[in-house]
Design goal:
Keywords: Repeat, TPR repeat. The protein is mostly helical. It has 27 helices and four strands.
């Protein structure tokens, strides 16, 4: 079951300002920095209909102005907002410098012992956690807890936010009980400090977070313990909805998260009809407030489809959420089950088994068998082993379907160990992994292709460096100052090394290694963008037309192929692999392009549809004879339309390069844009520059 959880409890409530921001207005008449005006202007951007992309320029300009004004307090205010912005955009590498800068500035200002120091520590820790830097994040959170005892009142909501965020770190690193404990503490603080906890949205959000954390904790427990935890999760999920109903807050966009959480708890308890009703209502709210192209819509739609299918198989009818919400969500004879499947794994026939992707099956199999095995047999290592599914295969991208299940598919997952741990327990752990049940939820046993066996295995136990070397040839990502090594790595190879999902990584070692491969140096990215522009212009704007004029349909067809591959790669590169990943293996190129093109903030999102149109036109344009087409017009009209579509794609690319500040030229032939792009390359390494 895909997760649509609640956002962190907000540490600052934006001021409501009418109208869109048009020009910075945070400088006072005497040239000083006006923090209040700055925050109002930032809120205006977020509250307006204009793109939030405008916020970055605003924030960076404010950083410069606060620094020029010599206002350290104002500078720290802006830095905290930048950290939150980059975190929300997944710009984790950019955030590292901002986080370090905020901590150094706060120390320079001697803020230790103040609530400003506590807030800075919380913001820095949350940014580190979002970047997968779990050790550093935990250290900062613990510093914040010590500081909070001195600087915050026991009922201060920032303290509740701190415990809420710390719970997320524990959950993300496989320490579910500690995560639950932190959420209980947060809920106590919020309930005690709220003037009306029965109508308090922060209280509601924490109830939902606690419900989902209890479900995660239930995995691998005894049936009796599972039942107890499931019942408690149901109580918290139901209380969330009662708070929204009591305060008549159902129009709030966050109500969708509350409904989704309630649906997940119902599903885990086998109450599929109730889950479907909750997801249906959540989907309507998401469509209204975020649009049907949003990630949240896709996740909730997937969950709804699974719930409807499960309800039909169980003979349950859909039950809509209303004012009679009770505590029965999550209650089941078999206890909590956090996977999108019946609670008796392995008992289903193929005709009865739930429809699942490989990633969903892998996560469920890990929760049901893998995690309990580690807890039982390797208690001293369970907090050191990472688990997930990453690598070669359509299931690692989430692109698999029923056709994909004939090979390299079935109940399985990866376990990643440090070199010292692998030397100590690797062989025995692999044997224990292979001893796990081979059939699960009606799937299996896994059928491994010839290319996925022995040293080339795709699942099982791996040493972290060995795993990445088997995919890329490198035990770790090339250094940022080794551009020639980065250029040797095909994008499809990098895609295989950075895809999939990580279910647990207590040490953060695997996540960090995977993130390093996603952090392509900007110089390399600009060099590749330049190369792609060269191929786009040569294949699409030059050789396609000449080949068609010669009547060489085969050459024209190959020109379209090269044009399409170059444009697709450019879309991923312009959006930055750190955010959207890399262009996958050719078979899944369009699956990947369609996926990122459906995201709200993706640049050049309209290009995907145009490329598919170009491919549809190519047959008639390249091989249509005089009598081909309606009315015997031949291929002529199709050729004209094809060339027009190619040129329109090039115009979209040019407009995006200009909008990104990568070029100031209006030259339509994209080959001539390459010097402008390469001017952004700071290194003089010849491998990065065209001749």
């Amino acid at each position: 079951m895909a997760d649509l959880g609640n956002d962190d409890i907000q540490e600052r409530t934006p001021t409501q300002v009418s109208g869109a921001h048009s020009a910075p207005s945070y400088l006072g008449a005497d040239g000083s920095f006006d923090s209040k005006a700055f925050l109002q202007g930032l809120d205006a951007i977020f509250d307006s209909s204009q793109s939030n992309d405008n916020a970055e320029d605003y924030l960076l300009q404010a950083l410069a102005d606060a620094e020029n004004a010599g206002d350290d307090a104002g500078l720290l205010t802006v830095l905290n907002e930048v950290i939150g912005y980059y975190r929300s955009r997944g710009r984790h590498q950019d955030n590292m410098w901002m986080i370090q800068r905020s901590l150094e500035l706060a120390a320079k200002m001697q803020l230790q012992g103040t609530d400003a120091w506590t807030t800075t520590l919380i913001n820095a820790a949350t940014g580190m956690r979002a970047a997968g830097q779990y050790d550093q994040a935990e250290d900062l959170y613990k510093q914040a807890l010590r500081s909070a005892k001195q600087t915050l009142e026991p009922g201060d909501r920032r303290l509740a936010a701190l415990h809420n965020n710390l719970s997320m770190l524990y959950s993300e690193t496989g320490r579910d009980q500690q995560g639950v404990d932190e959420l209980r503490h947060a809920l106590e603080i919020l309930t005690a400090s709220s003037p009306d906890p029965e109508r308090d949205l922060d209280v509601a959000s924490t109830h939902t977070n606690l419900a989902l954390a209890l479900l995660a904790l239930a995995g691998g427990k005894s049936p009796e313990k599972q039942s107890t935890l499931a019942n408690e999760a149901g109580e918290h999920a139901a209380q969330t909805l009662r708070i929204y109903q009591a305060g008549h807050l159902q129009s709030n966009p966050h109500y969708a998260s509350a409904l989704a959480g309630y649906g997940q708890v119902c599903f885990a308890g086998g109450q599929f009809g109730k889950a479907a009703g909750a997801y249906q209502e959540a989907l309507g709210i998401i469509a209204r407030d975020y649009g049907s192209a949003s990630d949240s819509y896709a996740v909730t739609k997937e969950n709804l489809d699974q719930a409807l299918q499960a309800a039909q198989q169980a003979g349950q009818s859909v039950e809509l959420v209303d004012a009679s919400v009770d505590n029965s969500a999550g209650q089941s004879n078999v206890g909590a089950n956090t996977s999108p499947a019946p609670s008796t794994p392995g008992a289903e026939s193929k005709s009865e088994r739930p429809k699942m992707t490989g990633l969903q099956l892998s996560r469920a199999y890990w929760e049901q068998y893998g995690k309990p095995m580690l807890e039982k047999k390797y208690p001293e290592y369970v907090t050191r082993i990472a688990a997930g599914l990453v690598g070669h295969g359509s299931e690692c991208y989430g692109f698999d379907d029923e056709i994909s299940q004939d090979h390299d598919f079935g109940p399985s997952f990866c376990l990643w160990l440090t070199s010292e741990d692998y030397a100590a327990i690797g062989s025995q752990l692999q044997a224990d992994y292979e001893a796990l049940p081979q059939e699960f939820m009606g799937y299996g046993p896994r059928e491994n292709s010839v290319r996925a066996q022995g040293a080339s295995k795709r699942v099982g136990v791996f040493e972290i460096g060995d795993f990445f070397q088997s995919i890329t040839g490198y035990r770790q990502a090339p250094a940022q100052d080794k551009p020639h090594e980065w250029l040797l790595l095909p994008e499809a190879t990098l895609a295989a090394a950075t895809n999939g999902e990580v279910f647990a990584d207590p040490l953060g070692r695997f996540l960090q290694a995977r993130q390093d491969f996603r952090t392509m140096p900007d110089d390399v990215r600009f060099a590749l963008i330049s190369q792609r522009l060269g191929m786009i212009s040569q294949a699409g704007q030059y050789n396609l037309g000449r080949s068609l004029q010669r009547g060489d349909g085969a050459a024209a067809w190959l020109s379209i192929d090269e044009f399409t591959k170059a444009v697709t790669s450019l879309v991923f590169l312009v959006n930055n692999p750190l955010t959207v990943g890399y262009t996958p293996y050719y078979k899944w190129t369009f699956a990947g392009l369609r996926t990122i093109s459906g995201w709200m903030a993706t640049r050049l999102s309209q290009v995907c549809g145009k490329l598919e149109t170009i491919l549809q036109l190519s047959s008639a344009a390249c091989f249509g004879s005089a009598g081909f087409g309606e009315g015997g017009k031949g291929a002529g009209p199709t050729v004209e339309r094809l060339e027009a579509e190619v040129e329109e794609v090039c115009q979209l690319i040019l407009a995006e390069l200009q909008a990104e500040g990568l070029t100031t030229s209006n030259e339509n032939f994209l080959e001539w844009q390459r010097p402008y792009i390469e001017a952004h390359i700071s290194s003089d390494d010849p491998s990065l520059h065209s001749i």
